[in-house]
Specification:
With 195 residues, the protein is mainly alpha-helical. It is built from 11 helices and 2 strands. α2 packs antiparallel against α7, α2 packs across α10 and α9 packs across α10. The longest helix has 21 residues. The radius of gyration is 17 Å and the shape is globular.
Length: 195
């Protein structure tokens, strides 16, 4: 069982993973698992989740504002035009994760994102097809019920890779689906699961 260090005094029961600090609790309470259908926010979450690969979400969350500043507020058209000089500038930015492969993947993924957006009318229309355009609810009673991936995240990962996206393994796709409300797997006794 994980040791918690932060306990909000509001009487609400929450998923245990978010009880690290106030920032994590706020993210859990206000964003995680809320269905997102606007393309700019979906793009932001896709970029942040690809940078998370191999790291904790808490690490990314603490650097989120740094990412927003470094990546032109996640303006997909601008990011798609980044060149070698932009990559070098980003590699020197201590406010983000300085990983060349992930930075180059963000630029590549922006280009593929724009292509899919044009093809399907919106990225939302494309990405939500993997859950049949609805939220999939997974019952989580204890940590043993938590899943790192699902058939839907497998399918998304495979499809995105075929479309030329990078750093989109099934675990990254699962995290993206949870963050954007495509999958709801708040613990059963969590107040957000009952909201």
């Amino acid at each position: 069982m994980k040791t918690t260090t932060y306990a909000p005094q509001d009487g609400k029961i929450r998923c245990e993973w978010c009880l690290k600090d106030a920032l994590y609790v706020r993210y859990h309470d206000e964003e995680w698992g809320v269905p997102i259908h606007d393309d700019p926010t979906l793009f932001e979450m896709l970029i942040l989740e690809t940078f998370q690969a191999g790291l904790s979400w808490h690490t990314i969350l603490k650097k989120r504002e740094g990412f927003r500043l470094a990546f032109d507020n996640f303006n997909v058209e601008r990011i798609a035009k980044y060149g070698r000089e932009d990559v070098e500038i980003l590699l020197g930015n201590t406010e983000i994760i300085r990983h060349r492969g992930k930075i180059e993947a963000a630029i590549c993924n922006a280009k593929q994102y724009l292509r899919l957006q044009k093809k399907y009318g919106s990225f939302d229309a494309y990405i939500w097809q993997f859950t049949g355009h609805k939220t999939i609810n997974i019952k989580i009673r204890s940590w043993t019920d938590v899943q790192a991936k699902t058939p839907q995240s497998d399918a998304m990962s495979e499809a995105l890779k075929k479309e030329g996206f990078k750093f989109v393994g099934t675990i990254t796709c699962m995290a993206f689906m949870e963050a954007t409300g495509m999958i709801n797997d708040h613990f059963e006794d969590c107040w957000r699961n009952k909201a």
